[in-house]
Amino acid sequence: MKTLILATLIILVAADPVVYFREQFEDGDAWKSRWVESKHKSDYGKFILSSGKFYGDIEKDKGLQTSQDARFYSISSRFDTFSNEGQTLVIQFTVKHEQSIDCGGGYIKLFPSNLNQEDMHGDSEYNIMFGPDICGPGTKKVHVIFNYKGKNHLINKDIRCKDDEFTHLYTLIVRPDNTYEVKIDNKKVESGSLEEDWDFLPPKKVKDPEAKKPDDWDEKEKIDDPEDKKPEDWDKPEHIPDPDAKKPDDWDDEMDGEWEPPMISNPDYKGEWKPRQIDNPNYKGKWIHPEIDNPEYTADVAIYKYDSIGVIGLDLWQVKSGTIFDNFLITNDEKFAEEVGNETWGATKDPEKKMKDMQEEEERKKRDEEEKKMKEETKEEEEEDEEEEEEAKAPEDEEEQEEEEGEEETDSNVKDEL
Ligand SMILES: *[C@@H]1O[C@H](CO)[C@@H](O)[C@H](O)[C@H]1NC(C)=O
């Protein structure tokens, strides 16, 4: 019985998720003591704490928001250094581009513990960079960059990021069997093997430098039929003198030179003769360069492994600011991360959408009312104008009448004089 309890305890302890880092910005200004702004440049943009223009929960949805346009941002937070050796590594956070972003980063960087946070900048060496990046209609992707032996490697696959104005959950899972998974809004969008989807290692096989295509290797699938001969009557000139042309009657050989009929296309002309094609009896197929094991290749069972992970940072550029980062989580437990995702992003996404929909509905109503008001006003003005016109018209008519009368008078005067 005792051993059973002990075994159960061990299993429970072993199954407990390890949370290396968690930040949800739910304690007012206290985040400022946990996050360090870099001083590498003097004009980095300011992060503020905000849940934005619309949200699911005004307190829970507070996060770090970029607040100045066309700025670099550089801020980071430190946690107890760990290695992911033999462990799954899960990095998760939410991003909300409520400003309808045109160009800007929405990714995090995971740094080794020796990072000098006060001097963090774009070239500071990191372990992993992960998250969305948008620039114009051309760039809308999720970066997954790993530093492997001092060099940054981009994923070979294209993962599209979200480009709407709502909060989205981004999750990267790196497993000790060198597989990975990327999730957006708790749904898998990409997965596979680290070795296959990044160029960390040289290729396993290379073309044998010793192998050469034999000189007599025949790669021609078809050849000219040696039996096929050009018919004797094949060759005809392409153009012939027009047999219907007649020398004009008034042609003077001495004056105009010797008469020649104009040339026309020869209806019997058959073009260049080409022999019939037959299967080549000596055809050997395409020569395939034999491959050998690449002497440069050494397998690495620990591509996934980082000895030191100690800082998470936001190091990015934004043209139009307003992005909110929240719900940072670094853990060794995929399921726990999914639960946390459900409890945070999952719980507030619908109310967030509802609030935005309501705001849009209100704006639409306001616009409609303003339009209606404008229409009414112009209608009133038009009516007033019409009245004025009519009033203005009346005396004009009288004048016209008077003029006409006057003309008549003149006419009669003239008549009288006559
Ligand atoms: C998260 O929520 C989804 C959708 O409701 C559900 O299918 C899934 O089981 C949840 N995951 C966890 C770990 O609770």
Automatic annotation (TrEMBL):
Binding-site positions, Ca(2+): 24, 60, 62, 326
GO biological process: ERAD pathway; protein folding
Keywords: Acetylation, Calcium, Chaperone, Cytoplasm, Cytoplasmic vesicle, Disulfide bond, Endoplasmic reticulum, Extracellular matrix, Lectin, Metal-binding, Repeat, Sarcoplasmic reticulum, Secreted, Signal, Zinc
Positions of the UniProt region annotated as Disordered: 193-257, 338-418
Keyword match Transferase: no
GO molecular function terms attached to this record: calcium ion binding; carbohydrate binding; unfolded protein binding
Acidic residues bias locations: 379-411
Signal peptide: 1-15
Family in the record: Belongs to the calreticulin family.
PANTHER family: CALRETICULIN (PTHR11073:SF16), CALRETICULIN AND CALNEXIN (PTHR11073)
Record's subunit section: Monomer.
Protein name (record): Calreticulin
Organism: Erpetoichthys calabaricus
Gene: calr
